[in-house]
Amino acid sequence: QSINYEYFLEIYEPYRDRMEEKEFALLLGISYSSYMNMKNQGGKTKVLKNRKEEISKEEKKKIIDELIKSKKIKVGQSINYEYFLEIYEPYKDRMEEKEFAGLLGISYANYLNIKHKGAKAKVYNYYDKEKIDRIRYILNKESRFYLKSEIEYLSKQYDIEIETIIQNIMNISERENTLIHMNLLQEKGKIWIGKQKFSKEFASKYARFIIDEAERSSKILCKKYNCNNVAQDLAGDAIEYLLKKCGFIEKNFSDDDCQSKNLIGASIYLHIKYNCLKKLRLPKENSLYRTFTYKGEEKEGNIGIKDETQNTENEVEEKILKENLKNKSMEEICIEILLDNINRELSSEEVIEIMSKKLKISKEDMLEKLKNYMLEKNRVRQTDDGDYILGE
Q1: Which tens digit of pLDDT belongs to each residue from 177-193?
Q2: 41 with 32: CB under 8 angstroms?
Q3: DSSP letter string over 28-66?
Q4: What pLDDT sits at residue 238?
Q5: CA–CA gap between residue 117 and residue 122 (Å, rounded)
Q6: What is the band of 382 on the pLDDT scale with cuts at 50, 70, 90?
Q7: In which element (H, E) is residue 146 found?
């Protein structure tokens, strides 16, 4: 049977409190792309078409346990499409590829990336991810202060640590920032979850800081992603986004000036970064359901988009690198990468590793090229003992 979105909503209504629309669509054998086309383009889609017999949660858990026990996968492991197919082979008669990808915690966007773009994607614990998705759905129904007791109840109900809930719901990538929110919940006994506008007073208090951060972040990121022509527009868009959507900063940290500034800067930086990637990325599928993260006070180069766009970001950076190699020497690009990482508190070995991977040459060859270039440009000199030092 072919159905439209209006009829879909009609049959979905009795199950609205038990699952999200996209989950119900999957239950009907409707792919995510067909669901979005039906919802946004007014199209029709067939239900229960070529559906394989549904696998129970117990069976899915058994599959994951088998894969982990046999050491074929581990949480956090990055895999490519070739390896994906290898571990999918025993289960291909029982589920589709995209369903197996979901079982591994790989989003639909990342599944398309590994299949069509030669990228890699990280494997996550399917059951923790499923529980977190359910908790996120519950907490995002209403933007308000949630009491510590409410979070504790969800933690107990779904057998998920409170720290894990906070980290995922607040979209935090660093443990340090998770602890900041955990301390907030402990001290105040509540935490604001959801979207909210800044108040006029809060916006006025940080107006100059917001403008400066937007201009600074836009300048840094637009230079990095070769889109300087839209730098001003992206700065303005980030300011509007912050004022309309990021009121959780004021709600949770209005009495903490340092943390408020930290989160304002992080939110601006990330929003601009996302829009830079959005303008440059190639596959449209990568616009699906992004989650944002921030990394505390370290801003430049350290605030990233979670796994849903990480493959796309790498793709964009490779594209930019190829363009740069047309106009610059390998040695000049080495210097640029070195400068980009100089403030990130990385060891020299880590910086060398980053440069080697980005330029796809051995560490030895790269260091030799860099040494010769620095000597040629009089940036270093060789001593009588054969050592190299900076300057004169």
Answers
A1: 778 889 999 999 999 99
A2: no
A3: TT--HHHHHHHHHH---EESSSSPPPPPPHHHHHHHHHH
A4: 93
A5: 15
A6: low
A7: strand 144-147
Helices (H), ranges, the chain: 5-12, 21-27, 32-41, 57-69, 81-88, 97-103, 108-116, 126-139, 148-158, 162-169, 175-188, 200-205, 207-224, 231-245, 248-253, 257-280, 307-327, 330-341, 348-359, 363-376
Show the tokens assigned to 233: 């527009």
Q: Are residues 193 and 140 in contact, defined by beta-carbon separation less than 8 angstroms?
A: yes
Both tokens assigned to 256: 């903490």
Query: Cα–Cα distance between 210 and 220 in angstroms, integer?
Result: 15
The answer to whether the CB of 234 falls within 8 A of the CB of 218 is yes
Q: Where are the alpha helices (DSSP H) in 254-303?
A: 257-280
Q: C-alpha dihedral over 215, 220, 221, 227, to 10 degrees?
A: 80
* Average pLDDT, integer, range 110-116: 84
Q: Using the structure block, give the residue that is written with the tokens 């308000």.
A: 144
Angle of CA points 278, 284, 290, to nearest 5° = 60
For residue 67, the model assigns a pLDDT of 86
Q: Return the minimum-mean-pLDDT range out of 51-55, 66-70, 261-265.
A: 51-55
